[in-house]
Amino acid sequence: MITSLIPMGFEVVIEPPALQDIQEAIDYYDSQSTGLGFEFEEELDHFFEVLENTQFFQVRYDETRCLPLKRFPYMIHYSVDEKNKLVIIRAIFNTSRNPKIRKSRE
Chunked in runs of 10, what are the mean pLDDT values of the chain (106 residues)? Predict the structure, then answer.
């Protein structure tokens, strides 16, 4: 019998505050250059796909893990529910912003 060592994918769930973060970033980038918001969204989608298969990046605070985007100065803040196979996106924060804003939402 051959068994796969590749773990089954997790489902990515985006909480409403994170959806708001995403929309604000898209709007901002679109105001800077046509199509840039779409490029931001594409990069996020890529990293959400990464999180479906690789969830265990560094824990930064209160069981919350963070994954930085490559092209944009944002970090995905998420937690993992191993029992239900969920990656829960809590926030998408601009790394240039005051971290107290993030703490105020916890």
Answer: 56 95 96 96 94 83 92 95 93 78 50
